[in-house]
Amino acid sequence: MMMSLGVSAQDAIVPLWPNAVPNQKTDTNEKEQVEYRESGIIWITNVQKPTLEVYLPAKGNANGKAVLIFPGGGYSGLAYDWEGRDIAKALNGNGVAGIVVKYRLPRSKSIVADQQIVPLQDAQRAIRMVRSKAEEWNLAKNEIGIMGFSAGGHVASTLGTHFEDMVYPAQDAIDGISARPDFMALIYPVITLMEPAVNMGSRESLVGKEPTMEQLNYLSNEKQVKANTPPTFLLHAVDDNPVPVENSLMFFEALKAHDISTTMHIYPSGGHGFSLAHKDKRLKNWLDLFVAWLDNLD
Questions:
Q1: How far is the C-alpha of 101 from the C-alpha of 134, rounded, in Å?
Q2: Which residue, 120, 141, 250, 278, could crosslink 222 as a Cys pair with Cβ 3.0–4.6 Å?
């Protein structure tokens, strides 16, 4: 028996910018690089064609929720499967669409013109595009949120606090859609660019070695929380040395001060960059905690 199956979005890779990519130099010899590291992680650098990689659950399992996923990598690369594809597939098992955002990196000075706004440009465009595809992808337009890991957590928290900022010229009708996430999950996130809790590698990649105080304030997202910042799930380990736990603690306090619904899980150990933490008996169920939180959002 022959069966005709529709094209599944399971393997869909959608370009973010159908026309010219904003804030991008055209006279560069740099090439996008994909490296398979000894650890098994797929590491992407010099991103020039930002995309969405879409993983949808079967329609019978789908609950209409979607999470855009921003992998970490210190703003110098993307841990693309470790904090991207694997997370999307795990979310699918819970009925949630997982959409991995391959965003441009500010460290690529020969590729981008204005370093500090390039991740926010891609993040805003990404969530607008997902909302524009809600009907096609069987999603609820008001249940589309974001998840970021490490520096990807900074991208996510920047989107969650700067979604109203105009950071690129509109290209089409999609750019008239709201860029506000309906919820945020920040996993061992970079939040602040200020001492003493700053991750200096992420900061230097984003704003250089001699940033202005205006730059630091604008992108220290604990200082940018407002009344319309989305409900937030925070996860961090106390022994995280690269990105101190104070990043999550400061963001929690800012959210609390603005009466934003917030849940925070702080673990005594786990370090940094643990992804799904399948081999850690304390941390391995954190995604279940997130899914339960998501199910109970007002």
A1: 16
A2: 250
pLDDT tens digits along 195-205: 999 999 999 99
Q: Do residues 184 and 160 make contact, with C-beta atoms less than 8 angstroms apart?
A: yes
Residue 221 lies in a domain: yes
Does residue 23 form part of some domain? no
Strand runs labelled E in the chain: 12-15, 33-36, 42-45, 51-55, 66-70, 78-79, 97-102, 144-149, 184-187, 232-237, 262-267
> Structural domain of residue 82, as residue ranges?
30-295
Q: How many structural domains is the chain composed of? A: 1
Asked if 28 and 107 count as a contact pair (C-beta separation under 8 A), the reply is no
Can you give the pTM of this predicted structure? Answer: 0.94
Closest CA to 73 of 110, 121, 119, 125: 119
* Per-residue pLDDT tens over the stretch 170-203: 999 999 999 999 999 999 999 999 999 999 999 9
